[in-house]
Amino acid sequence: MLRESTTMKGTRHIVVTQDDMARLKELVRQGRKSSRRDQDHLAELDRELDRAEIIGAEELSPDVVTMHSMVRVLDLDTGSSRVYTLVFPVEADIEKKRISVLAPIGTALIGYRAGDTFRWKTPGGTKHFQIEEVVFQPEAVAALHGAA
After folding, report:
1. DSSP letter at 136?
2. Residue 74, Cβ neighbours under 10 Å: how many?
3. Tens place of pLDDT for every residue, the chain, 148 residues?
């Protein structure tokens, strides 16, 4: 899959929390044992995780997309903007805008920041996206409540 950042720094690395990394790697491991139909998606997620910088939740910037983040995404090809919550496959519900990390756009979002743009292959062809805003990030809320 093509994942190309168009930031001034060139190809952007992604960051993933230690907790998300552990849960996502376990998802990949378990999925490879049991799910025949998601093998390509599992492999793509595994490649993304392999290139990620792993950090503690306390080090995480509130503008990074993590699991259970609510994100406003702009399709730069059509100009349409949508809000998704990035979830694990068992929690996915497209009617509630809860998108699986194994869906092409879900895999593309993990670890990127608000403002990042990227190209990603989807079932409808390669699309150009921008993360407009991380509306909600659980780690940011936890840090806020931990500081109170």
Report:
1. E
2. 17
3. 334 444 333 456 799 999 999 999 999 999 988 867 778 889 999 999 999 999 999 999 999 999 999 999 999 999 999 999 999 999 999 999 999 999 988 999 999 999 999 888 888 889 999 999 999 999 887 766 665 4
Neighbour tally for 56: CB within 10 Å = 10
For residue 97, give both structure tokens: 């805008």
Tally of CB atoms within 10 A around 139: 22
In sequence order, which ranges of 35-134 are alpha helices (DSSP H)? 39-50, 104-109
Give ∠ CA 83-88-91 in degrees, rounded to 5: 75
Query: What are the structural domain ranges in the chain?
Result: 4-138
Distances 14 to 3, 52, 54, 93, 147 between C-alpha atoms, Å:
11, 5, 9, 25, 26
Which tokens hold the place of 4? 């190309």
Tokens standing for residue 6: 């168009």
Domain 4-138 has CATH 3.10.50.30: yes
pTM equals 0.85
How is the beta sheet containing 125-136 ordered, strand by strand? 4-5, 117-122, 125-136, 70-75, 81-87, 98-100
Tokens at 106, concatenated: 């879900």
